[in-house]
Amino acid sequence: MNPTLDLMQQHRSSRSYLDKPVPADVLNAVLDAAWRGPTSINGQQVSLVVVQDPTRRAEIARIAGGQPWIAQAPVFVTVVVDFHKTAVGARLAGEEQVIHDSVEGFAVGAVDAGIALGNLMTAARAAGLGVVPIGGIRRDPQAMINLLALPPLTFPIAGVALGYVDQDSSVKPRLPRDSFVHAEAYQTAGLEERIQQYDQQLAAYWQDIGRAEGQPWSANVAQFYRSVYFPQVAPVAREQGFGFDR
What we know:
- This protein is an alpha+beta fold and 246 residues long.
- It has helices at residues 3-9, 24-35, 54-63, 68-72, 83-92, 103-126, 141-148, 191-208, 217-225, 233-239, and strands spanning 46-51, 75-82, 130-134, 154-163.
- It has one domain (3-170, 228-239): NADH Oxidase (3-Layer(aba) Sandwich).
- 45% of the residues lie in helices and 12% in strands.
- It is globular, with a radius of gyration of 19 Å.
């Protein structure tokens, strides 16, 4: 198989890192993979904030709810939805930006941030590094904004810890492929059976790796999605200048 495809199909989140710095040339090549990624209308409404200082990484670990691998990994990259940059460009062209005051604007920024995050992770793993994406920074987005000195019209949407792996993790099984890839139109038939099948497969996986606390997929998503588990996202985004009424 093509080595890039093989790498991507063997993704795993690594949560154990060596005390070994990432060389500047390696890190810069990984960051450039995200920088060169596509964005809607070439708006480039994404920025990265790279944190290597141990004290600041420890603070991010605390903000994210106590995730020690953030402090352990030598690099943490925050992916920022950045309509501050585009607003400056619009002003230079003699226009006033309004896209940030809409659901479409936040969606565009989040999609482009996701593309950058995917490029970061693939590039890092191709460079021999391990990664773990972090959504937990949205637990307290205002604290991240303060720590990273983010200006208005920006939002820290996600991050990724990266470094050289100490103890690697295994590849977690996924829902059946035909619940993910639909031919021509969304296929709802048989979905419950496929989820039940996956619940059993995932339970066996947790048992195999010694994770007694591991839950079936359906119970896990129910636990999280029965509430808005990061309730500060909307109010902090509004404080940053984003609107959701257009």
